[in-house]
Design brief:
Immunoglobulin-like; 2 domains; 6-stranded parallel beta sheet; 23 strands; about 15% helix
């Protein structure tokens, strides 16, 4: 009898080893109900690194908690959370890397990004021959007032878009950002990344450390927010009061104020230079191999904003 019992137990273990999987296998894991989220931890109790995307969208019933997903530490695809009634994103807190992008969209009860605390890098995965791709989208979350909860994000390769959040008041929560760069693939061509902060009616604090550390963005779009967040000049004007130190790429401009000729000193090669007036109009734009001097003798006296490799300098022309 004991022999038969041992055989049965052995067969059960064999079957478990044959049919169980450490992690979900597929391109995208769709979690459309609380039952499916709860079932994930039952089906994949040892899954920490997910070679896929996660889409959380309650089309089959309300989602009340993401805690059953707390074993996940990284995923190679995208993380999308949309159309939920979640107040926080607790349960995603152990995810430190997202290979492609993060989108938090149409979560009308969401009050903070708590739960994304562990994310340090977005867009680390190579895609075809493109080394840097990805995005962070925060869109249409009616009760979101700030970005606390994503404070540890250091590296974003790709687009940053924060739009249509009617109660968002500040971009605080982005202070840790130091590396914002990359490209995006549209399906037909490669484009440089864009930054869009728009249609956030109460947003008046945009000059936070992460935004003031912008680099390598080809396009900036600040519009239809509250005061101090409606143009690149307004935002970067606020950034002149923020202490930004960049040990990787120290740039100095002198003399400032200037009567005309501005000298540029940099430890690295300068490849992009743009001068804007107080209205945000581009006065001078150069894409030259290591330009080291700029002549603004013919420009009227006043305040100008000089971007060097997309670092900002406030220039006074006498």
């Amino acid at each position: 009898m004991k022999f038969i019992t041992l055989i049965i137990a052995s067969l059960i273990l064999v079957n478990i080893n044959i049919f169980s999987k450490d992690c979900f296998e597929g391109d995208t894991l769709f979690l459309n109900s609380q039952y499916e989220i709860d079932k994930f931890v039952t089906d994949f109790p040892n899954c920490t690194k997910l070679d896929a995307s996660i889409v959380i969208n309650p089309t089959k019933g309300e989602i009340t908690t993401l805690v059953p997903l707390s074993n996940i530490q990284s995923l190679n695809g995208v993380l999308i959370v949309k159309n939920t009634n979640l107040i926080r994103l607790s349960g995603l807190h152990n995810i430190s890397e997202v290979g492609f992008g993060v989108s938090i969209e149409n979560n009308n009860e969401l009050i903070s990004l708590t739960g994304l605390d562990g994310i340090r890098e977005i867009g680390q995965k190579s895609h075809s021959h493109i080394d840097e791709v990805g995005y962070l989208y925060i869109k249409s979350n009616d009760n979101l007032k700030n970005l606390w909860g994503i404070d540890n994000l250091d590296s974003l390769k790709g687009d940053l878009e924060i739009t249509d959040n009617p109660n968002l008041e500040t971009l605080r929560g982005l202070e840790s950002l130091r590396k914002l760069n990359g490209f995006k693939f549209t399906g037909e061509r490669i484009e440089e990344s864009k930054l869009t902060i728009s249609n956030n009616k109460k947003l008046s604090i945009c000059a936070v450390m992460g935004i003031c550390f912008l680099r390598n963005y080809a396009e900036f779009d600040f519009n239809n927010n509250s005061t101090r967040c409606n143009s690149i000049v307004e935002v970067m004007g606020g950034c002149s009061f923020v202490s930004v130190e960049d040990d990787l790429n120290k740039v100095e401009v002198y003399p400032n104020p200037s009567n005309g000729v501005i000298n540029i000193s940099s430890e690295n090669r300068i490849t992009q230079l743009k001068l804007l007036d107080q209205l945000g109009r581009t006065i001078i734009e150069k894409k030259i191999n290591d330009v080291r001097q700029l002549d603004i003798s013919n420009e009227p006296s006043g305040v100008y904003y000089l971007f060097i490799n997309n670092q900002l300098f406030r220039i006074l022309k006498r």
